[in-house]
Write a structure and sequence with these properties.
The protein is of the alpha/beta class. The chain contains 12 helices and 9 strands. Strands 2-1-3-4-5 form a 5-stranded parallel beta sheet, with helices on both faces. Strands 7-6-8-9 form a 4-stranded parallel beta sheet. Helix 3 links the parallel strand 1 and strand 2. Helix 2 packs antiparallel against helix 7.
């Protein structure tokens, strides 16, 4: 099944989410070109010569995943620690030696604006990644580099490539990373391969897709290590927003110290499992994590009510390629489930209502 089927064919993909998923490789390549063309100082702050001792990435929701991706991909390669802030608060360690990257697709995310303003007032060097809005205005006031995201992308969660590539390029310009262009090109190349082969490599079985779409069970995503944890979190959020149902995510090896113990109580013997586990696998797993997947699968199959289990496997040259290969696969999966549920994957009414409610109060 290709990413342009499902909701499009059923006539309920009003915002073109399937087309956005199919366009992810081009989105990443375009974002790389746009980010490399940013002019001016590498960062905005008291002094471009100031030593950077830590990095913080601030963002929420579909924009906030950029922080998780940066933490998984860049932090292991950097000489300074990377923190991710998802909320109104800015950590107390932020100061003149901090490089603060604020990511908001709309530019109007209130949590990110408040945290970014606090970081700026604390003397941090600022970088903004946005399609416009108030964050773009603040970047101009602060003299901070602005990495503009394509505003034609239908929703923040559909901009996962653009909002992730720009911070990586910014970190490289600040002297904290190298080789980002090669990472992005390898990822885009793998996405082209995955997209073109999607007809014969459609991910979870149709029976699981249909059962989730029809409300018979909910998905639980397992990911190993930093890369797998990001992919699992992305999968959970895509099911939440594209299908409008609950879903869950856990990470190996931590889940083997708690969650695994609960599967023997999946339900009375005569009931079907209310949950299905989808494991997101990649080539950079610790050897012991691989063995934990094998053991966990045996536990699931031997539970009082056997829990459906399937795996998605990443391909690609390098960690970024494999992470985005998983992201692409779970995005397509979420669209398949939305089609089975006959739900429009685009609009998310309850979140719009929340923003209106907060604005009134």
């Amino acid at each position: 099944m290709t990413p342009t089927t499902g909701p499009v064919e059923s006539g309920i993909d009003t915002m073109g989410m399937a087309a956005a998923v199919a366009g992810l490789p081009a989105q990443m390549q375009d974002a790389l070109a746009a980010a490399e063309d940013v002019r001016g100082p590498a960062r905005g702050g008291p002094s471009d010569d100031a030593l950077i001792s830590n990095v913080i990435v601030m963002g929420m929701g579909g924009s906030g995943v950029a922080g998780d991706i940066i933490s998984a991909l860049a932090a292991p390669q950097m000489r300074v620690p990377v923190a991710v802030a998802k909320g109104y608060e800015c950590p107390a360690f932020v100061g003149p030696s901090t490089l603060a990257i604020a990511v908001s697709f709309s530019g109007n995310t209130e949590e990110t604006l408040e945290a970014a303003t606090t970081a700026h007032d604390a003397g941090a060097s600022m970088i903004a990644v946005t399609a416009g809005g108030r964050l773009a205005e603040l970047a101009a006031q602060w003299g901070a580099p602005l990495y503009e995201v394509d505003a034609s992308i239908p929703m923040p969660r559909a901009a996962v490539g653009a909002i992730s590539v720009a911070p990586l390029v910014a970190l490289e310009r600040a002297g904290l990373l190298s080789g980002v262009a090669d990472w992005v090109r390898a990822a885009a190349s793998q996405l082209h391969v995955r997209r073109d082969s999607a007809g014969s490599d459609a991910g979870p079985p149709e029976a699981i897709v249909r059962a989730i779409g029809e409300g018979e069970m909910l998905p639980v995503f397992y990911g190993g290590g930093a890369l797998g944890a990001v992919a699992a979190g992305r999968a959970k959020a895509q099911i939440n927003e594209n299908v409008k149902i609950p879903s869950y995510a856990s990470a190996m090896p931590e889940l083997c110290h708690n969650e695994l113990a609960g599967w023997d109580l999946a339900g009375p013997p005569d009931d079907g499992s209310p949950l299905a586990v989808i494991a997101l696998r990649h080539g950079f797993e610790h050897p012991q994590t691989r063995r934990r997947y094998d053991f966990a699968r045996r536990v699931l199959e031997g539970a009082r009510t056997a829990v459906p289990y399937c795996e998605l496997h990443a391909n690609g040259d390098g960690e970024m390629a494999q992470l985005f290969d998983l992201i692409f696969q779970v995005d397509v999966f979420s669209l398949r489930v939305a089609a089975a549920a006959r739900r429009d994957p685009g609009p998310i009414g309850v979140l719009t209502e929340l923003k209106d409610y907060l604005a009134r109060h």
